[in-house]
Amino acid sequence: MDFKINIIAVLVAVVANFILGSIWYMPLFGKVWGKEMGYDSNMKPDMKVMMKGMAFMVIGNFLFAWVLAWTMAGWQFIPGANEMGPLVNAINSAFFLWLGFYVPGNLTNTVWEKKSWKLFGINAGYQLASLLVVAFILSFWK
């Protein structure tokens, strides 16, 4: 078995995912997300905390893209996977990973931590969008 990972595609996916997260949690859903999380909208975040959070977000995005690249490379050895093409492989990878790994965790958080279904929708929506963006980049840019 020969696993080939395009590190440039992984790094581009990291940047794209960072941009998506910034747009998703700031202009698109930032106010609603903050309200659902119980944050005071008048409180200005500490820049040190913001920078630390962004650094860990980049590290997390790298791990996410790197592991997804390895996972998608491994699935290419399943009979018939290559005939599906990059679009179908990206959608299947993103959707089934989201459904099997992200949705259950979000459901558990919503119920046991008494989080709102609105917060569930914002977070689960971002996770699906993130998986799709990264999977498309990795699938089409081999």
Tell me the layout of helices and strands.
Blueprint: H1 7-28, H2 30-37, H3 47-75, H4 85-112, H5 117-140
Helix pairs in contact: 1-3, 1-5, 3-5, 4-5
According to DSSP, the number of beta strands is 0
Mean pLDDT reading? 92
**What general form does the structure show?**
globular
Structural class: mainly alpha
What number of domains? Answer: 1
Distance between the termini: 16 Å
Cα radius of gyration in angstroms: 17 Å
Largest sheet: none
Number of helical stretches of at least 4 residues? 5
Beta-strand residue percentage: under 5%
Poorly predicted ranges: none
Quaternary organisation of the protein chains: single chain
* Helical content class: over 70%
Q: Please provide the ordered H/E string of secondary-structure elements.
A: HHHHH
Note down, in words, how this protein is organized.
- There is one protein chain.
- 18% of the residues are buried.
- The chain has five helices and no strands.
- The chain has one domain (7-140).
- The protein is an all-alpha fold and 142 residues long.
Key features of this structure:
142 residues; mainly alpha; globular
Quick structural summary:
The protein is an all-alpha fold and 142 residues long. Helix content is 78%, strand content 0%. The protein contains five helices and no strands.
